[in-house]
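The instructor's notes for this session suggest beginning with a concrete chain rather than abstract definitions. Hand out the sequence below and ask the class to guess, before any prediction is shown, which regions might be ordered.
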Amino acid sequence: MAQRKKNFTTLSIIVASLLIGFLVGYIAGFRYGMRLNGQDSLPAMPQQFQSQPSRIELSSGAIEIVKELNCICGCKMELLPCTCDELKGSKEIKAFVQILVGEGLSRSEALGRLVEKYGQSVLIAKSS
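After discussion, reveal the predicted structure:
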C-alpha cells in the first residue's frame, strides 16, 4: 500500500510539472508572437475597424508625378485623391512612385517605368 501511494504521489508530481511546463510555454510563445507583430500587448481595437485608412506618405517629387496618374483598379479616379486598397490600386501605385523617386529617377523615367508596369491607361489623358 505504501508503494502504491508513493507511485501515485510521483505520478501526480510529474503530471503537475508537465501541465505547468505547457502553460508557461504557451504564455511565453504567445508573448513572443505578440512581439514579432510589434506589439507588447493586445491591441485595443482590431485593425479592420480603425476609422482612418492608412495613407502612403509621398515626397513632393512623388506628388508631382502622382498628379499625372490615374488609379487603374477600376474606380475611375485620378490617383492623387484615391485611397483604394485594390490590386493595382492607389496605395500600390503611389508606393511604386515613391520608390522610383527614391531611386533618383527623373519624372520622365518614372513615368516610363509606370507605363511599362501598369500600361498607358495609368497616365491622365491630356486634352490639347
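Then share the key points. The chain is about 50% helix and 0% strand. The chain has two domains: 2-42, 55-122.
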